[in-house]
Write a structure and sequence with these properties.
Radius of gyration of chain B: 22 Å
Shape of chain B: globular
Largest sheet of chain A: 4 strands, mixed
Strand content of chain B: 25-35%
Number of strands of chain B: 13
Order of helices and strands of chain B: EEEHEHEHHHEHEHEEHEEEHEH
Largest interface: A-B, 23 and 27 residues
Order of helices and strands of chain A: HHEHEHEHEHHHHHHHHHH
Number of strands of chain A: 4
Helix content of chain B: 25-40%
Oligomer: heterodimer
Strand content of chain A: 5-15%
Structural class of chain A: mainly alpha
Distance between the termini of chain A: 25 Å
Distance between the termini of chain B: 39 Å
Chain lengths: ~350, ~300
């Protein structure tokens, strides 16, 4: 009875607290809208490829026309001098030179070199394209020789709809919102500790654990509202397709909410004042937000940051949510994500319980 | 059986003896005051009585139980008023009363209790929007709503203006009329004199006097106090030699208190002395001795110096 009333009291307090509602509910929605707007333009990077060949060269025009059909490539043709000048200015990613008479020599069966120029400063990106160029030349060679292809990769997409940046961002922002809720929601207990209310409650018949329990229950309820809001905005504004089962999504959200609630209480369990609690929470929350692949894939980070990301629970919550919500290919298997989140939950819960102070 | 019985209570914080051999008992139905300056050990004593702090020595019986081995039954019969109002700043007065009622096995009607402390018009106000006095009244309502037999009030009127203080005193007297036992701590002499059936004066964790306010004054004072302000006489040792004056107390400012066995003679002497010295006397007041004077005599300083 008193637990139920405490729960209702907590819920009313939360609903009457406009600042909390803003941070926990409106803020993630704003984030999604901003990121959605920013990435609603072209989804893929476009590579500018320059071809330098004498006009009418069959190999040159064949290759450049073939590449032009692909959206990812912005194909230019010109003389070697103009194309190299463009490469120097950064207007080309690669320049492919088809030397005079190359086609004739190749058709005659002679080994023929095709120079490919790239900017050494952008070696990473350029190398990505080398295999494309190789593949393109091999295909041309096969046509010339008339030799059939024996092994052919058959690409079979199993995505119902193509994944877009918003599909990557949206589950990540939900993960971030769950973290904020868990971390910043823990300040209520710090305030009660600071004002010595928790201590005073020790002299009433009310078990103090009820106060904590009611708070956690309200937090869980709010995390479900966050889920509904993010999915609602995703579907209504960005045409999001939820591919996973609702039960799986719900399960991951509850696990995430519990893990970060537990971590929040661990971070603030010794804080005597709101101010001191805030310092520690922000020290953890801020790097976690940027290193966990919420806003960009962990894959593009340098090695040592990848190793940091591999330790953070938010990395796995974001990964798991992307997998169950939109069917994003896993960075880590789902089972591993859930196990690591569960591990963080158990360890932080045990530590928070051991270190907990009511007064 | 006394409602509270304390024998040789001890509490140390490091080298500091916050409570140092305190003994007293509180009878059912009385208002008992622990009176002393800040740091006298009053709050530590209350916290040990309600089981929020462990004692280092001595025995305590509260409603027959040891608060160090608290039972749900005991907690259900005592009410404490600390800073509970802060629990849910965004709940309304009536919501808080309902919530607190639900904690206790016996409970009073929340709306009636809120009305009894005079907050009926504030029933739907969030507690964070209450004034200091309204907050304290709500705190009292929250200790009442569980229908406790024994109520602890720790400095219930600290920080209140005189009017709010008086209206809170009426509430405490109302509790007593309903047969409750009340232990309150205060450093306001006037509060102790107005409310308490018996008072224990404590200083540095020790009991320095105990009894009814009347007894305490009568035992320690046959004299009457004469107060006045005078910059120059406050620094004048000659006052001690005036006929009819037994003791003199001056503070750093210009305030002087003369304790007189014969008031008429003392005032006559004082007037002559002041005109001889050409030192005018202002704001002259003659009053009966109070607990403040008792504390001054026993502890050698004023309660709030």
């Amino acid at each position: 009875m008193s637990f139920w009333l405490l729960f209702v009291a907590d819920l009313k307090s939360m609903l009457r607290n406009r600042m909390a509602l803003f941070w926990f509910l409106v803020f993630p929605v704003i984030f999604i809208l901003i990121f959605g707007a920013v990435f609603s333009g072209s989804q893929q990077p476009v590579f500018a490829i320059g071809f330098a060949f004498a006009s009418g060269d069959p190999l040159g025009s064949g290759l450049s026309d073939g590449l032009r059909k692909l959206d990812a490539f912005d194909v230019h043709t010109g003389t070697l001098a103009t194309e190299l000048a463009a490469l120097r200015k950064g207007e080309r990613t690669l320049v492919i030179e088809i030397p005079e008479g190359a086609a004739r020599r190749a058709f005659g069966g002679a080994k023929t070199g095709i120079p490919v120029y790239y900017d050494k400063g952008h070696e990473q990106t350029s190398r990505l394209l080398f295999s494309v160029v190789d593949e393109m030349l091999m295909e041309a060679e096969r046509r010339v020789s008339g030799r059939p292809r024996l092994l052919e990769a058959q690409f079979q997409p199993f995505q119902t709809s193509p994944l877009r940046t918003i599909d990557f961002i949206l589950p990540g922002i939900l993960a971030m919102a769950l973290m904020q809720l868990g971390f910043f929601g823990s300040f209520q207990m710090v305030a009660l500790r600071e004002q010595k209310v928790l201590k005073a409650l020790g002299a009433t018949p009310l078990p103090r654990l009820h106060v904590l329990g009611a708070e956690v229950l309200v937090r869980l309820l709010l995390s479900l509202v966050q889920l509904a809001l993010t999915i609602g905005i995703g579907v209504a504004v960005f045409g999001l397709h939820v591919t996973g089962s609702w039960l799986a999504v719900l399960g991951v959200v509850v696990l995430g909410a519990l893990t970060f609630t537990s971590l929040g209480y661990l971070l603030t369990c010794r804080a005597r004042t709101i101010d001191s609690g805030q310092g520690l929470v922000q020290l953890v929350q801020f790097p976690m937000m940027f290193l966990s692949g919420i806003f960009f894939p962990v894959g593009i980070m340098p090695g040592f940051l990848k190793r940091v990301a591999a330790l953070l629970p938010l990395t796995y919550l974001g990964d798991a949510l992307r997998q169950v919500m939109v069917g994003m290919p896993p960075e880590h298997p789902l089972g591993l994500c859930l196990a690591i989140l569960g591990g963080w939950l158990v360890v932080s819960f045990a530590l928070a319980t051991a270190l907990w102070r009511w007064e | 059986m006394p409602a509270i019985e304390v024998q040789d209570l001890q509490k140390r914080y490091g080298a500091l003896r916050a409570v140092d051999g305190l003994s007293f008992s509180v009878e059912p139905g009385e208002i008992f005051g622990l009176l002393g300056p800040n740091g006298a050990g009053k709050t530590s004593t209350v916290e040990m009585l309600v089981g929020l702090r462990r004692r280092d020595g001595g025995t305590i019986r509260v409603l027959g139980s040891d608060p160090d081995r608290p039972s749900a039954a005991l907690r259900g019969r005592i009410g404490i008023q600390l800073q509970q109002v802060a629990l849910f700043p965004r709940l309304t007065v009536i919501e808080m009363a309902r919530l607190f009622a639900s904690f206790y096995p016996r409970r009073l009607d929340p709306a009636e209790t809120v009305a009894r402390v005079g907050l009926q018009d504030k029933g739907h106000t969030q507690t964070k929007d209450l004034s200091g006095g309204q907050r304290q009244r709500l705190a009292i309502a929250l200790t009442m709503v569980g229908d406790a037999d024994l109520v602890f009030l720790d400095e219930p009127t600290t920080g209140l203006d005189p009017q709010a203080r008086r209206s809170l005193w009426d509430l405490v007297l109302d509790l007593k009329r309903r047969g409750k036992t009340i232990l309150l701590t205060t450093h306001y002499m006037e509060e102790a004199e107005r409310l308490c059936d018996r008072v224990a004066i404590v200083d540095h964790g020790r009991l320095i006097a105990m009894g009814t306010p009347r007894e305490l004054v009568d035992t320690h004072f046959a004299e009457t106090a004469i107060e006045f302000e005078s910059e120059s006489l406050a620094r004048d040792d000659g006052l001690r030699g005036l006929a009819g004056v037994s003791r003199v107390h001056t503070n750093g400012g210009g305030a002087v208190t003369l304790y007189a066995t014969n008031v008429a003679l003392a005032i006559d002497e004082l007037m002559r002395y002041s005109s001889r010295r050409e030192a005018p006397v202002e704001n002259l007041v003659v009053r009966r001795a109070t607990l403040e004077d008792v504390f001054l005599q026993l502890a050698g300083r004023r309660m709030r110096e």
